[in-house]
Amino acid sequence: QVQLVETGGGLAQSGGSLRLSCAASGRTFVNAGMAWFRQTTGKDREFVAAVVWSGGATHYSDSVKGRFSISRDIAKNMIYLQMNSLKTEDTAVYYCAATPAVNSGTYDYADAYEYDFWGQGTQVTVSS
User: 25, 67, 71, 119: least buried by Cβ within 10 Å?
Assistant: First the structure.
């Protein structure tokens, strides 16, 4: 079993920055896919960014490309989401997600159903 714990959410002003962290435990990641999704009330969970544990390939949604950066720390079993130039529309609950093993040819990183494990979420609120 995998446990994911997100930290780092909070309140930021438009144009500001926040950094989210996700600590993973319960197994050793070798070829996992890990991602950040976000969700607002009444809407489906939205893909934000993903990273492949082996090799570090990253993927971003168009809405955050150039503003957000996902990274991983293999030694600490953690991933991060650096969020810069925040906008009010970035306000959401942010979730960390993991799938234990990915096939680079079929990994649909933006599909929430691809992921087996989820954190509890952390609230990010951006004020104007």
Answer: 25
